[in-house]
Amino acid sequence: MVRWELTNVANDYLRFSEKIMNLTQKEYAWLLRVFKTVIDDMDPNELKAFAAELELTPEDLEWGWPGFSYSFEDAGKALWIYSDEYANVENLGAFLHSFMKVTGRKDYIAVTWAETCDKPRIGAFGGGVLLVTAKTYVVESSWSRLGKLIKEHL
């Protein structure tokens, strides 16, 4: 008989920390409006419209919006986006893409993340990258990239 010990339980984390600098008043106002929106108070049509603005589905929003932590810094001139335990990088990518499109930013936002575990579990470590412009965003995990490299080189 195999007995599962409580000591075998491990905690997985997805962590990142980036800052978007030099926010304009227009950008700050848009961010503030979006972050202050309470989706619990919306009827289905309002939720659908809000989700569409962020290039998400209502289901994406209901699954823990925004899916990352944030804080305004430097009197609203910077946005710190971060995760100490878990984040939804797809939601983050769609949100940042909407931000870039709506506000007309011409630069890019790059986020790298680490996936860690508090025990040395096989396959529990990795990470990824998120690149966002006003035209598009790309999310790629280290495991996805590794799969592509294996196909290329074997």
Gist?
The chain has 154 residues and is an alpha+beta fold. It contains five helices and six strands.
3D architecture notes:
The chain is an alpha+beta fold. The protein has one domain. Helix content is 35%, strand content 27%. The chain contains 5 helices and 6 strands. The longest helix is centred in the middle third of the chain and has 15 residues. The protein is globular, with a radius of gyration of 18 Å.
List the helices and strands and how they pair.
Layout: E1 12-20, H1 25-36, H2 44-53, H3 58-62, E2 69-73, E3 78-83, H4 89-103, E4 109-117, E5 126-132, E6 137-141, H5 142-153
Antiparallel strand pairs: 1-3, 1-4, 2-3, 4-5, 5-6
* Number of DSSP strand runs: 6
Number of helices: 5
Mean pLDDT: 92
What is the rounded Rg? 18 Å
C-alpha end-to-end distance: 41 Å
Series of H and E elements: EHHHEEHEEEH
Q: What oligomeric state best describes the polypeptide chains here?
A: single chain
The largest sheet has its strands arranged as 2-3-1-4-5-6
Sum up the overall morphology in one term: globular
User: What level of helicity do the residues show?
Assistant: 25-40%
Give the number of domains: 1
Which features characterize this protein?
about 150 residues, alpha+beta, 6-stranded antiparallel sheet, 5 helices, about 25% strand
